[in-house]
Design a protein that fits this description.
The protein is α/β, with parallel strands linked by helices. The strands form four sheets. The chain has a six-stranded parallel β-sheet. Strands 9-10-11 form a three-stranded antiparallel β-sheet, covered by helices on one side. Helix 1 crosses helix 8. The longest helix is centred in the middle third of the chain and has 23 residues. The radius of gyration is 25 Å and the shape is elongated. The relative contact order is 0.14.
């Protein structure tokens, strides 16, 4: 039997990560690792630091987003364009297990900080690279933001309504997905290194467009095997019926997923359409796909007669998957979100601030937020003195020269 006693240790304690990336993809990977115990040393340019510190809502000189994205990180400043700054990066990489960078391909090599140079001083380094299009191929050196990479990666093509321009979710999905893939790649590489008698590290190459491409399910084999191009389908999913969004009497929308054969019957009984529940044409998904409009019309007519709370209550009784569409305000009020401990509270200048917990949940060695995103250069003294052994006078000189 597993021991489910919660331990104060975290699964990545003892792993040191050197984070050189800015904005979202690289830093999000670093946040995931830091949450679960890795010592993440975030390198930022002197002065303003990572630009994301000033993005969106800014309070007391720092964005609220940064307080979440920068959590548990030791923040230092280094000018990577300065030879002295690059030398300090080499020394930090020599003492690290993982390096994360998300500059345009070729930038790190230009600075003499590419994989070959750093593995010469640390053969066990897991060198993680995040870019728009990857380190190889004809598009490698193109600038690649999430918005563009979501398009070429296939997500935007299927997202939206037929005949209208593709829709973007109001989030940087490509960046976050790339960060998740980077964290997975890092863990795979660390596991491989652990089992390698020579303890060799390796390069992890993550592209934003490939992280999006990885979500395309059956799109590729359906095209190659049957010549079918998956098109946008609005609020539905092609080939699975019914799964849609329906407007209720109170002006709110609910999502209903009734595409299992037995679930469909329960759904139609709850919607007071016993005739459709017993209709042999609709007994299986293939038939329901052929009659999608008829089914959606019946459900739309039903939900229009009831408030959303009534619709959801009836479907809950019938054990039909259904739910509301939540804003963040709804999430903070919901008892299930609270019971699942999806919010953590940090203190910023004496004021409480809620930030999201990071998943997944681990039973005995969970992650946690130890501190919110700190000020620029907060850990300069600690890292440069304690880790690299620099004298205080040397640190002062580097600061005066603009290196840190």
């Amino acid at each position: 039997m597993l021991d489910m006693t919660v331990s104060s240790s975290r699964p990545l304690q003892g792993v040191r990560v050197l984070e050189l990336g800015q904005l979202l993809a690289g830093p999000f990977a670093g946040t995931l690792l830091a949450y679960f115990g890795a010592e993440v040393i975030k390198v930022e340019p002197p002065g303003g630091g990572d630009p994301i510190r000033q993005w969106r809502v800014v309070r007391d000189g720092s964005s609220l987003w940064w307080r979440s994205l920068g959590r548990n990180k030791k923040c230092i400043t280094l000018d990577l364009r300065n030879p002295s700054g690059r030398e300090l990066v080499r020394r930090l990489a020599q003492r690290s297990d993982v390096l994360i960078e998300n500059f345009r391909p070729g930038t790190m090599e230009k600075w003499g900080l590419g994989p070959a140079e750093l593995k010469a001083v640390n053969a066990g380094l897991v060198y993680t690279r995040i870019s728009g299009y990857g380190q190889t191929g004809p598009y490698a050196k193109r600038p690649g933001y999430a918005s563009v990479c979501e398009g070429i990666g296939g997500l935007r093509y299927v997202n939206g309504f037929p005949g209208q321009k593709p829709v973007r979710p109001n989030l940087s999905l490509g960046d976050t997905l790339a960060g998740l893939h980077a964290a997975l790649g890092i863990m795979l590489a660390l596991w491989q290194r652990r089992n390698d008698p020579l303890q060799q590290g390796q390069t992890v190459d993550v592209a934003l467009f490939e992280a999006v491409f990885n979500l395309l399910e059956a799109v590729v084999p359906e095209y190659d095997g049957a010549g079918i191009v998956r098109e946008p389908a609005g609020s539905t999913v092609t080939g699975i019926v019914p799964t849609n969004t329906y407007l209720c009497r109170d002006g709110k929308y609910v999502i209903i997923g009734g595409n299992g054969d037995s679930i469909f019957k329960r759904l139609m009984e709850a919607a007071e359409r016993s005739d459709l529940a017993a209709d042999p044409r609709l007994a299986h998904n293939a038939g329901r796909v052929q009659h999608e409009r008829e089914i959606d019309a019946a459900l739309s007519d039903w939900t229009a007669t009831l408030d959303s709370s009534e619709v959801l209550a009836r479907l809950d009784t019938a054990e039909v998957p259904a739910g509301p569409i939540y804003s963040v305000a709804d999430m903070l009020r919901d008892p299930h979100f609270q019971a699942r401990e999806l919010f953590e509270t940090v203190e910023i200048d004496g004021q409480p601030l809620k930030i999201p917990a990071i998943l997944p949940k681990l039973g005995s060695t969970p992650g946690a937020t130890s501190w919110p995103g700190p000020a620029v250069g907060s850990h300069n003294r600690e890292v440069f003195e304690e880790l690299l052994g620099l004298e205080a006078t040397e640190i002062d000189r580097l600061r005066d020269d603009g290196v840190i």
